Amino acid sequence: MLDPLHQFVISPIFKINVGGVDLSFTNSSFSVFCVVVLMIALFLVGLGRKRLIPNRAQAFIEIMYTIISDLVDNNIGNKGRHYFPFVFSVFLFILFGNLLGMVPHMFTFTSHIIATFTLAAIVFLFVTILGIILHGTHFFSLFVPKGLPKFLVPLLIPIELISYLSRPVSLSVRLFANMMAGHTMIKVFAGFAAMLGLWSILPIAVNVILTAFEIVIAILQAYVFAILTCVYINDAVHLH
Questions:
Q1: What is the pLDDT of residue 2?
Q2: What's the DSSP call for residue 142?
Q3: For 3-25, b where at least 16 C-beta lie within 10 A, e where not — what string?
Q4: CA 116: distance to chain centroid?
Q5: Distance CA 132, CA 189 (A)
Q6: Is the pTM of the predicted complex or chain greater than 0.85?
Q7: Which of 12, 87, 141, 155 is the Cys-Cys partner for 24 at CB 3.0 to 4.6 Å?
Q8: What CA–CA distance (Å, rounded) separates 17 from 189?
């Protein structure tokens, strides 16, 4: 019970095996399902009726909409309006996933590299396909900086290509590492509090501070993921 890494164990809720393939519904699957349901419920409650004075759900949606709208405009420009729904959906999904993991006994799927890498790979493929659709073969000029002397082209193209292919790795590791480290620290100090008994005031106080800090990190990491998504889309649209 005091193992700080036990919270990251994926365990099946309903075991499903099809043709030798394990398709079990796990605690991670349940968390993803809850996030999707919460997002749908939020928009149904917040935007189900037109209100002159918004309720809390509508006010929250409007705040999130404004934040991501400004983010898209500042990083992509007028052409970014087309990609706002994608960035907004990615941001809310990660935000809800991070915050839901702060609820006791809920699983934090963003603390697993396979989940964050899948999200990063979706962004990477979207941006790459978008760039090819918009610019055709000219998209690959992204790997050749403007004004580069010809004799340096064979040297820098592999470097630029490796840098481009490392985007989903860095994007996924950043989110995964922050969420896993924060939750581990909270669990460690919770374990100290449980072992010390009546002398656990200090670990509990530290844990309260860590919990507040982790909530901030959960929000910040969703925002950073959205910013980098906008930056990558901007590169594909404008070929900077």
A1: 65
A2: G
A3: eeeebbeeeeeeeeeeeeeeeee
A4: 7
A5: 49
A6: yes
A7: 12
A8: 38
